[in-house]
Amino acid sequence: MSPDPRFPPHDEPPQRVPAFNVPGIVLVLLALLAVIHWVRVEWLDDVQAAWTLLNFSFLAGCYGSPDALCLLREPFAGWVSPLTHAFLHGDWTHLATNAVWMLAFGTPVARRLGVGRFLAFCAFGAVAGAALFYVVNPDLIQPMIGASGVVSALMGGAARFALGSMGRGDVAYAPLLSIPRSLSDRTVLFFIIVFFATNLALGSGAGLLLGEGSAIAWEAHVGGFLFGFLCFSVFDPRRQHPVGI
């Protein structure tokens, strides 16, 4: 049997893949998110919690013509909040949902990129999610929080090498697919269609089915995913030419 061209001989993964192979950096990041949320919920009083939300959540409207609320922010807030919003969550359910998806998609991405590149990729994913949220909602004075932009970036990155290679060994060693090749892969294409259809439904108001007040920052999801999908090759340490045209 001829070898699969998508797995050149020098890229063959080890024959044995540990059953529990979540990289330490993913577990550390999840633990950090949990500790931050626990401190916010259990240790901070109302004034401290409000100060934290005001200065570390992303407030899109504060970058245009800020109202009085924005003037109460610390000078550093506008610089750090495009990143720090990803460390805050509305409740434990919000955090748990992001944690599950981060485990699923962060594992192959972290194993492929290594600690430093993985952290940089996540940081840019958070900023990309905040950026698209601002483009769509430039005047909105409402805190945007959560690691959904990061998780979506991990999904987009995984779509470039892992999703189309499931069942073919350790996906962390799978070849990087070009963007056209990724879009022609049925598994990847189906995943992308479901992702955007879900976020389109959220953006059109179907998210109200989740309950009153459960606003979903679908713009951050889309911004993170587009960054991860389009820019993953910049972070890929293997420096290979993407497979496909």
What key attributes describe this structure?
10 helices, mainly alpha, Rhomboid-like fold
CATH topology: Rhomboid-like fold
Q: How many discrete structural domains?
A: 1
**Bulk shape:** globular
| Low-confidence parts | 1-17, 206-213
| Number of distinct helices | 10
CATH class category name: Mainly Alpha
- Give the end-to-end Cα distance, rounded to a whole number of Å: 25 Å
Oligomer: single chain
The percent range for helix content is 55-70%
- β-strand amount: under 5%
**Beta-strand segment tally:** 0
Question: What is the CA-based Rg, rounded?
Answer: 19 Å
Q: What's the CATH H-level homologous superfamily?
A: Rhomboid-like
Strand/helix succession: HHHHHHHHHH
Overall mean confidence score, pLDDT:
86
Taking the sheet with the most strands, its summary is: none
CATH architecture: Up-down Bundle
Structural class designation: mainly alpha
Describe the structure.
By secondary structure, the chain is mainly α. The protein has a single domain (22-235), classed as Rhomboid-like (Rhomboid-like fold), CATH 1.20.1540. Helices cover 57% and strands 0% of the residues. Helix 6 runs antiparallel to helix 10. The model is unreliable at 1-17 and 206-213 (pLDDT under 50).
